Amino acid sequence: MAQYFADMYQAVSSALIGMSITIKHIWKKPVTLQYPDERQVMSPRFRGFVHNDTKKCDGCGICAKACPVDCIYIETEGKAKDRYMTRYAIDYNKCIWCSLCTENCHADSITMSHDYDHSVYFRDTLVYEFMDPNEAKVPCHRITRTELGWWVEPKAEKKPVEKPAPESGPSDDKGEDH
Ligand code: SF4
Ligand code: SF4
């Protein structure tokens, strides 16, 4: 008999605890999003799919050399002032989102975007071509880029915070710390 009432108490109390949690959350704002119509705002440093702005890129190849998995393909033709980039592609099957390419790009053209939902049926389609074969080839040499109006100034470097110089007294003329 005692066991019967103990079981009853257990069942009723666990139901009440469950209901109290439900009631507590019923007036709260939902955290779920109606994806893909609604999307989460990613944090500024989120590393999504790598993107290259070919208008800024000069095909120097530094990013491809820095890439630890060799997933950046750059093809060029010509030499010196007549050198043009004909292909810039990234294989997202291999990319590990390390950001070494973006950190080494001198032109600030390759960036980690906030794109993250490139679901595909075939892995081949994850090789992204950034050059449109119907558009003009990208000039690599800076003089040619300037002449053709392709040169894009990279973002200005952040100035380092200047620390105030330590005050020197008359006894500091030897530059020694005390
Ligand atoms: S390092 Fe920058 S400028 Fe050079 S090829 Fe890569 S993306 Fe283009
Ligand atoms: S994020 Fe890393 S792995 Fe991906 S393309 Fe850039 S260097 Fe290569």
What does this structure look like?
With 178 residues, this protein is α+β, with helices and mostly antiparallel strands. The chain has helices at residues 2-26, 62-66, 100-104, 142-147, and strands spanning 50-52, 72-77, 84-91, 110-112, 127-129, 138-139. The strands form 2 sheets. Strands 2, 3, 5 and 6 form a 4-stranded antiparallel beta sheet that branches. It has 4 helices and 6 strands; from the N terminus they run αβαββαβββα. Helices cover 23% and strands 14% of the residues. Strand 2 and strand 3 (84-91) form a beta hairpin. It has a domain at 50-147: Alpha-Beta Plaits. It is elongated and about 95 Å long. The chain binds iron/sulfur cluster (SF4) (2 copies). One iron/sulfur cluster (SF4) binds next to helix 2.
Could you write a compact summary of the structure shown?
This protein has about 180 residues and is of the alpha+beta class. It has helices spanning about 1-25, 60-65, 100-105, 140-145; strands at about 50, 70-75, 85-90, 110, 125-130, 140.
Pattern of helices and strands: HEHEEHEEEH
| Structural class based on helices, strands and sheet pairing | alpha+beta
Instruction: Let me know the largest β-sheet.
Output: 4 strands, antiparallel
Q: What is the radius of gyration?
A: 29 Å
Classified by CATH, the class of the domain at 50-147 is Alpha Beta
Number of helices: 4
Which shape, going by the Cα principal axes?
elongated
Q: Return residue spans where pLDDT drops below 50 for at least 5 consecutive residues.
A: 171-178
